[in-house]
Design goal:
Largest sheet: 2 strands, antiparallel
Number of strands: 4
Strand order of the largest sheet: 1-2
Number of helices: 6
Shape: globular
Helix content: 40-55%
Length: 208
């Protein structure tokens, strides 16, 4: 009952309320981004949703326009060279993600679920297939996010995502939701670049 109906209703209501409440903040951040560096306010990237279908996920732009688009930031050798001054703050507080409330309202995402993979993260997507994690909506935050995030090898991250997919309950969603605030405050699992992770390639394939 919760997984099929109540979760989606809670997602829609909370995301709609959150979007309205946070709209003044989002407008303020948009102005800061525009003043800080040339380029669009929003960054659009092809990500994977339920059933391995794709959608254009939005974020506040935190990097220069010449930054690689289809490579996870933690796999870049020197991400600091691309991150803008305002972007550094947004990423530290995870404020670049709040525009994704729009995707939750529209039904492409959930508040809690596996983070949407890049279209070319085939290794992660294939691992998630083993655990049924691609069969649910991706989330703004998730079980893997509060249990290591960028520091997790792909196989471990996929297992956490699969564990969540098998145990979607109100209690689990609350653990992920409130655990996210702790992770943001402590900067747990955030890695902006450096050595590649076990099980991850040093670069992602790029679409020509």
């Amino acid at each position: 009952m919760y997984k099929k109906h109540i979760k989606r209703l809670i997602d829609f209501i909370l995301a709609l309320v959150g979007f309205v409440v946070l709209l003044p903040l989002m407008l303020f951040l948009a102005v800061l981004i525009k003043l800080d560096s040339p380029g669009p306010v929003l960054f659009k990237q092809i990500r994977v949703k339920k059933g391995r279908a794709t959608f254009n996920m939005l974020k506040f732009r935190t990097m220069r326009t010449d930054a690689p688009k289809d490579t996870p930031t933690h796999l870049l050798a020197n991400p600091e060279a691309y991150i803008s001054r305002v972007g550094r703050i947004l990423r530290k507080l995870s404020l670049d993600e709040i525009v994704q409330l729009w995707h939750i309202i529209g039904g492409d995402m959930s508040i809690v679920g596996p983070r949407p993979a890049l279209w070319n993260q085939h290794d992660l997507l294939d691992e998630r297939d083993k655990y049924g994690a691609n069969d649910i909506r991706p989330g703004l935050t998730g079980w893997a996010q509060i249990n290591g995030r960028d520091e997790l090898p792909i196989d471990v991250k996929a297992r956490f995502d699969g564990e969540y997919a098998r145990n979607i309950t109100f209690r689990m969603d609350c653990r992920c939701f409130f655990g996210t605030f702790r992770s943001v405050l402590t900067q747990q699992g955030i890695r902006e670049g450096g050595a590649e992770q076990k099980g991850e390639p040093s670069t992602c394939q790029k679409k020509s």
